[in-house]
Design a protein that fits this description.
This protein is mostly helical. The protein is built from 16 helices and no strands. The chain has a single domain, classed as Up-down Bundle (Growth Hormone, Chain: A), CATH 1.20.1250. The protein is globular.
């Protein structure tokens, strides 16, 4: 069945799919990026250490990553629609809890529940894209949604800084409540069920473990998942460490930092547009290779500037623009390629992809927090290392095992 026929059968349009995929995917970057400029204010409000405040980021990512092992099979068992609606509702309620948090402990709990809700929505979105499109079409669809989604981290820190300045740090979470409610209402009326073959055994431990084993044994999955994780690892290093390096070490204000962060996201936006042009001409493997080469150049340039003693915001933000651009080229086909071999277990494959990405990101984030020494070196050298890992995976595993064109 063609993608047009699948869309017609599901009663959905391409524009609806793009809007839903973008909106559901936005929850994760908004959850991390909108409140980044408020971290010092949160630390002051609760008289908490930097390490303690970092838990609000680490817990979100950890829950977001691990819950995918459950969310994926849930969407395969019960369908995409009910799980997405449940995820959006949980996220909205969790955002209210964060907004009203009377203590650091309650804020961390709220962030964990936000991770659960955002994760459920993203897994559902990835799975319904796989339900409706071939792998190559799915990659273009994800790239198109990513172009829209990139406005979340592009504008998020700027909006967060302005809201915090005007109304205090809780206003960032109030904005997330409004977005989540609007998204839930849109999904309620426009999203249709796309899982035509629900798996009644998806949640049984034996079959679930066998399904995950089948996914992990796929060389194509491992290749694309590692490519996605490597490029995201460098991005998450910047997300988790840039506020301390740019604000504390290099002296930027919260507003200046928000614009510096948005420079990287602007690169990502350009990258997703380039990805959509490259995919039809070059295919998934060569598109990833091109993006990986650019990423390695950006990472090496950032490390070289740091080691040469050029310690200024621009020495980080300019290379990070190109890292973001390369991430926008590498990530969409990596995500689509990882799920492509599993048309009947797309939820489980999407979940396992997310776990790999988030566990590596959490490890990178923990390293960034532990290694911060008041200099630019841990951050810049970690980003460079991740960029080298991306190019290594692209030119070995993806080149060797990445042909998934026959999975329709």
């Amino acid at each position: 069945m063609t993608s047009s026929a699948r869309l017609a059968a599901a009663g959905m349009t391409t524009s609806t799919v793009v809007a839903l995929t973008a909106g559901l995917s936005m929850l994760q970057p908004l959850s991390t990026d909108l409140y980044l400029p408020t971290l010092p204010a949160i630390a002051s409000h609760f008289d908490a250490s930097v390490a303690t405040v970092q838990w609000t980021l680490s817990v979100f990512i950890a829950v977001f990553g691990l819950w995918q092992l459950v969310a994926g099979p849930l969407t395969d068992r019960y369908g995409r629609y009910p799980l997405i609606m449940l995820g959006a509702t949980v996220y909205a309620l969790a955002s209210v809890l964060c907004m009203l948090a009377p203590s650091m402990a309650v804020l961390v709990i709220g962030r964990a529940l936000q991770g659960l809700g955002a994760c459920t929505c993203l897994v559902g979105a990835r799975a319904f894209v796989r339900d409706l499109y071939t792998p190559s079409e799915g990659a273009r669809m994800i790239a198109g949604a990513a172009t829209i989604m990139s406005f979340a981290p592009l504008l998020g820190p700027i909006i967060g800084a302005q809201l915090a300045s005007a109304f205090g740090w809780r206003a960032a979470f109030a904005a997330l409540v409004v977005f989540a409610v609007a998204l839930a209402l849109f999904a309620a009326f426009r999203l249709k069920e796309t899982n035509a073959r629900r798996n009644p055994h998806a949640l049984a431990p034996g079959p679930m473990l066998r399904t995950y084993g089948q996914v992990l044994r796929s060389p194509a999955f491992r290749a694309y998942a590692l490519a996605a994780a490597a490029t995201y690892g460098g991005l998450f290093a910047f997300i988790s460490g840039s506020s301390f390096v740019l604000m504390r070490t290099l002296g930027q204000s919260a507003t200046a930092y928000a614009f510096s962060f948005s420079t990287m996201v602007a690169g990502y936006l350009v990258g997703t547009l380039a990805c959509r042009r490259l995919l039809p001409r070059q295919g998934m493997q060569r598109t990833i290779a091109a993006g990986a080469l650019l990423q390695a150049a950006a990472g090496i340039a950032m490390a070289a500037l740091a080691l040469a003693g050029v310690h200024a915001p621009l020495a980080i933000t300019v290379p990070m623009f190109f890292y973001g651009l390369s991430h926008g080229i590498v990530q969409p086909p990596s995500q689509s390629g990882a799920v492509a071999p599993f048309p009947h277990n797309a939820g489980a494959a999407a979940a396992l992809l997310g776990v790999v990405m988030m566990l590596i990101a959490a490890a990178v984030g923990a390293w960034i927090g532990a290694s911060y020494d008041g200099t630019v070196y841990p951050l810049t050298l970690t980003i460079a290392a991740c960029s080298m890992a991306t190019v290594l995976v692209a030119f070995t595993l993806v080149r060797r095992h990445g042909d998934v064109a026959h999975h329709g």
